[in-house]
């Protein structure tokens, strides 16, 4: 593993370059989310606040789908909890890779741990120590981009009201396929992906709500634990 670290400025720039394709890829469903939120009666300020404080696209989509007046707070809270339980697993995978962040830095990193940021940071950590500057280069562009897109979608409204007409409804799926492909390691990855997808599809058909997210994650973890050899210990340089 490479142990030499570039300057913070170079690390930040590398993060920006790495996240840029994904920042472009999320444009369609950022606009769609904003348009859907506006259609449910949320103001531009409320859309901005939701994106700024939640910053979780899938959870926001589910919340908007459930939104009505008065808001079903219990259903919204439970659904958001279920869809975001995957962050527990994502955070666990990060636990040995944030040694350079400090306590406050870890908390900030967790807030910005969207799927795209987590995936790119994980791949980076396989090659060299993950630095706060690199992580900031990932997080800040995607975060600002998400705020701008969702507010723009709310402002444009009807212009993006029918995402299927432009193929935008496939954007979510395409992004996550790309994230999975970034970790592709041949047959072992195929087994994990198939098990996770099969469990998620089955549970989605049988149970309402976001339980399919938990089922897919659990099936993938179980398959990985049963079929993947134990990894060697992480080098000390990656923990510092």
TrEMBL record:
Coiled-coil residue spans: none
Broad class of where this protein is predominantly found: membrane
InterPro entries attached to this UniProt entry: Brnchd-chn_aa_trnsp_permease
Subcellular localization, as worded in the UniProt entry: Cell membrane
GO cellular component: plasma membrane
Superkingdom of origin organism: Bacteria
Membrane protein topology class: Multi-pass membrane protein
Keywords for the protein's UniProt record, in alphabetical order: Cell membrane, Membrane, Transmembrane, Transmembrane helix, Transport
Residues that span the membrane, as ranges: 12-35, 47-67, 73-92, 133-154, 166-184, 210-231
GO process annotations (BP): L-valine transmembrane transport
Family the entry assigns: Belongs to the AzlC family.
Name of the featured protein: AzlC family ABC transporter permease
Highest classification ranks of the organism: Bacteria, Pseudomonadati, Pseudomonadota, Alphaproteobacteria, Hyphomicrobiales
């Amino acid at each position: 593993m490479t142990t030499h670290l570039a300057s913070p400025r170079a690390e930040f720039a590398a993060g920006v370059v790495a996240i840029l394709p994904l920042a472009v890829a999320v444009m369609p469903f950022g606009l769609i989310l904003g348009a859907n939120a506006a259609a449910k009666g949320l103001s531009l300020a409320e859309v901005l606040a939701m994106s700024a404080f939640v910053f979780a696209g899938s959870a926001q989509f589910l919340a908007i789908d459930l939104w009505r007046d008065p808001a079903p707070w219990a259903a919204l809270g439970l659904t958001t909890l279920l869809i975001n339980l995957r962050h527990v697993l994502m955070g666990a995978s990060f636990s040995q890779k944030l040694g350079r962040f400090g306590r406050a830095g870890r908390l900030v990193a967790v807030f910005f741990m969207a799927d795209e940021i987590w995936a790119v940071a994980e791949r980076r950590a396989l090659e060299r120590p993950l630095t706060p500057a690199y992580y900031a280069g990932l997080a800040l562009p995607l975060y600002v981009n998400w705020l701008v897109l969702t507010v723009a979608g709310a402002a444009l409204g009807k212009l993006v009201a029918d995402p299927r007409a432009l193929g935008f409804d496939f954007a979510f799926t395409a992004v996550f396929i790309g994230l999975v492909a970034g970790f592709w390691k041949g047959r072992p990855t195929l087994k994990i992906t198939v098990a996770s997808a099969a469990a998620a599809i089955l549970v989605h058909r049988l149970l309402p709500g976001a339980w399919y997210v938990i089922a897919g994650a659990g099936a993938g973890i179980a398959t990985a634990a049963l079929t993947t050899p134990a990894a060697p210990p992480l080098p000390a340089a990656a923990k510092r």
